[in-house]
Write a structure and sequence with these properties.
The chain is mainly alpha-helical and 241 residues long. The N terminus is likely disordered. Helix content is 42%, strand content 10%. Strands 4-3-5 form a 3-stranded antiparallel β-sheet. Strands 1-2 form a two-stranded parallel sheet. It folds into 2 domains: 121 residues, Orthogonal Bundle (Helix Hairpins); 110 residues, 3-Layer(bab) Sandwich (minor pseudopilin epsh fold), CATH 3.55.40. It contains 10 helices and 5 strands, in the order βαβααααααβββααα. Bound molecules: manganese (III) ion (MN3). Manganese (III) ion binds next to helix 2.
Length: 241
């Protein structure tokens, strides 16, 4: 067997365990070198834990097929890219995205975004008995910047319903206040921001694959259900100190 060393690094080093990718990916490249292999981090709860609001079948397909495919495609794209880019953290590849050469730029936007966004998305949810209301500094910011929790929910829902086709809705900290943002497809607030001035706090996947089995075309019903499983402690933990 070849001797190879691999640096396995999750995109969220603070949150990630050291997990190994499938062996077919590790054998995709020969030679003695180190490179990052990204891992689709499983939701930190059982796939049926969000029932009845987010159904088990949706979670299984969403994680095992959609999320893992983005991660696999990201790794494939990085393995065939110039060596310098393989050494960059994913966040730097996002920040400098439009300066990257194609096809890497397109892969970072679509597959890198899909990988990172889903790792983040799973943590934004928690089994319903544990879901609480926002507290402390986050609650204060919601009152100050978004007119309180009820108004925030209304604006977030309106924003999510206005995403044409597939995309994401985010709550971000912009250094001055919290605000709601939309991104198309698998883009996210980290992309093309070399100044790193937006901090994602909460991300909502509004692709149909996130809700179609249970809600079919009824995105508003999905949003109502999502609201009941938001992990506000995680959201608050993304505020910079
Ligand atoms: Mn998705």
């Amino acid at each position: 067997m070849d001797r190879r060393s691999f640096l396995v690094k999750s995109s969220l080093a603070s949150a990630g365990g050291m997990l190994w990718l499938q062996s077919n990916m590790l054998s995709a490249r020969g030679g003695e070198e180190e490179f990052q292999v990204y891992v689709a981090e499983a939701p930190p709860y059982a796939l049926d834990a969000l029932e009845p609001f987010i159904d088990q079948k949706t979670m299984e397909i969403h994680f095992n097929f959609h999320h893992k495919a983005y991660t696999k495609n990201l790794n494939t794209a990085l393995q065939s890219s110039a060596e310098q880019y393989r050494k960059w953290p994913l966040e730097k590849l996002f920040a400098e995205m439009d300066r990257l050469p194609d096809p890497l730029k397109t892969a970072i936007r679509n597959q890198g975004g899909g990988h990172w966004n889903h790792n983040f998305f799973w943590k934004c949810m928690i089994a319903p008995p544990q879901a609480k209301a926002p507290q402390g500094k986050l609650a204060d910011l919601i009152s100050r910047d978004l007119g309180g929790l009820d108004n925030f929910k209304k604006e977030l829902t309106t924003s999510a319903l206005s995403v044409f086709g597939s995309g994401w809705v985010w709550l971000v900290w912009n250094g001055v206040k919290i605000e709601i943002l939309k991104t198309p497809n698998q883009e996210n607030p980290l992309m093309n921001r070399p100044e790193n001035n937006l901090f994602p706090l909460l991300g909502i996947d509004v692709w149909e694959h996130a809700y179609y089995l249970k809600c079919q075309n009824r995105r508003a019903e999905y949003l109502e259900n999502f609201w009941k499983v938001i992990n506000w402690d995680f959201v608050a933990s993304n505020l910079p100190a």
